[in-house]
Amino acid sequence: MLQFDEDTTRVLEDGYQGGDITRRRRASFDALAPVPGDRILDLGCGNGLLTLELARAVGPQGHVTGLDASPDMLAAARQRLQGRANTTLTESDAATLPFEAESFDKAVSVQVFEYITSRRPVLRAVHRVLQPNGRLVVGDIHFDTFAWHSDNRARMQRFLDIWDNHLADRTVPARLPEELRDSGFEMVSMRPVTICDTDLRPDGLAAVMIRLIRAFAVQTGATDEDDAAAWAQEQEELAAEGRFFFSLTHFVCTARRV
C-alpha cells in the first residue's frame, strides 16, 4: 500500500470526486442500471464512493454490499457510509466471495480486474452469487490507449513502464469477452469512456496519476526522488506553456449471467 502525505491525500480525494473519475464511475452506474430493491455487490469497493451512490439508488428496500481486501480502504468506506442501513462492508479477496449462491441481482467492479492475475476464478465466483440473468458490469482501463506528451520521451516511457509493474494486466478490456464467456456470462456491450485533457486540472485524472506514479516509482525503489520530481515538474511546465496532452480510455463491459 502506497503511503501518502497530507497534500497528496487531498489531491487524490479531489481527483476521485472530480469530473474525470466521476464520469468513469457514472458510466458503470448507468450500465448497471440500479432500481429500487436491487441487491448489488460492489466488488473492490475501495473508499465507497460508488457504494454510496448505489445505496441511494436502491433505496431502503434494496441493499448494497461492498467488498474489498484492503482494511484501509474499508475504513474509508465505513466512514463514508455511516448511517446507511442498506449497506454492508465485507473484507475478502475477490475470488473468495463469502455469500450464498444467487444472493445478488447485480454486481459491479470498477478498476479492479486489472489488478487480478487470474480473473476466471473471480468471474466464476461472481457467477455463483448472481441470480440467473443477473447483470455484471466491469470497468477497467486498456493501457495501450495511453498517450501522454513529454519532450523527454525516453523518460516518460520509463515512468510508464514503472507504472505497469503495479498492474497484473494492462489489456483487461481486450481479454474480458473470452473470459466472461468461459465463466458462464453472455457479453452485452463494451463502451469506451475516453479521458482527453489539454489542461492539467487539479481535480483531473492526470493530476491523480502524476501523484500516484511519482509515489510508486520512489517507494518501490525504481528511481530516486529527484528523478521523479523532474518527471512530474515537466508536466507542470508543459501545462503552463499550453503544451499539455494526456489521454487514455476506460472501458465499461456489461454482461449477463446465463
Characterize the structure shown.
Strand 4, helix 5 and strand 5 (130-148) form a beta-alpha-beta unit. The radius of gyration is 19 Å and the shape is globular. By secondary structure, it is an alpha/beta fold. Helix 6 (153-164) packs across helix 8 (205-219). It has a seven-stranded mixed beta sheet with strand order 3-2-1-4-5-7-6. The mean pLDDT is 94. The protein has helices at 6-16, 19-32, 49-58, 71-80, 119-129, 153-164, 172-182, 205-219, 225-240, and strands at residues 39-43, 63-68, 87-91, 104-110, 130-148, 185-197, 246-257. It is built from nine helices and seven strands, in the order H-H-E-H-E-H-E-E-H-E-H-H-E-H-H-E.
Shape: globular
**SSE pattern:** HHEHEHEEHEHHEHHE
Please tally the helical runs, counting DSSP H or I stretches of 4 or more residues: 9
| Helix content class | 40-55%
Question: Strand portion, in percent?
Answer: 25-35%
Secondary-structure-based class equals alpha/beta
Q: Could you give the distance between the termini?
A: 37 Å
Major β-sheet annotation? 7 strands, mixed
Question: Are there runs of 5+ residues with pLDDT below 50, and where?
Answer: none
Spatial ordering of strands, largest sheet? 3-2-1-4-5-7-6
* Overall pLDDT score: 94
Number of distinct beta strands = 7
Structural Rg:
19 Å
